[in-house]
């Protein structure tokens, strides 16, 4: 066990983009993939804990975020590009394999990695987004259907411009609202009480309590505000705009079984689980024969790796210790 290895930052060339990564520790590699609106920093607690336990932990700013390049065309965020990013990152670091962890959009990508990049994935540590079967219809058709009934961000984000302008003009307000709204302290699906017509995302998100919160202080929040004030949100929004492309490209791979060792972790108050009904893990268990354990953290919401860092770290370390 060691906790003295410093956190370092560097930029590596991965395919056609420059990717910023934070690294800490040495030993077997673990790659942590964040979602929206995240950064490498979303894994700060895991970087510290996993590196102290003897692992080399690598947390990139994903394509479109932070100090990593952000292609302007949404097609640059399809599954081919995002898988190539992760394979290219391993190649750039001279690694044959790694354990991959994913959260939110990062989890969606990481679920696809074993079948898109066989041989490169040693195991999966998945947060918040269970594996589900491929949608029977194009995602944007489903989003449009939902948006006819109530506000849904998945539809609002599709058109280039409105969300980019709204969120980019108010990064501090948006980040505080979305972090609170998706946390265990709020019921996110109350946003569905609002109609789509005439509303932006800031209109439907609840007002957050003042910082500090039990899991986020002013300095931590300030890092997100600084980065997204500088970059805007278009890179992150482009992941949503690539949903149809990902759906098309995944046609023959999405529902193949995932046999690599896997652990799944979520907060009990995560709206993703609420939307999936009474048995959110039933389908995942069938689709992921490699699933070794599932953990639900009482009271935590969508950002479980920050809201319940100690519990998440313990589940991750137990899983990693059990790998051959």
UniProtKB/TrEMBL annotation:
Superkingdom per UniProt: Bacteria
Pfam family, any one: Abhydrolase_1
Keyword Mitochondrion: no
Residue ranges constituting the AB hydrolase-1 domain according to the UniProt record: 29-129
UniProt keyword list: Hydrolase
Gene Ontology molecular function: any one: hydrolase activity
SUPFAM superfamilies: alpha/beta-Hydrolases
UniProt KW Hydrolase keyword: yes
Name the UniProt record assigns to this protein: Alpha/beta hydrolase
Annotated source species: Speluncibacter jeojiensis
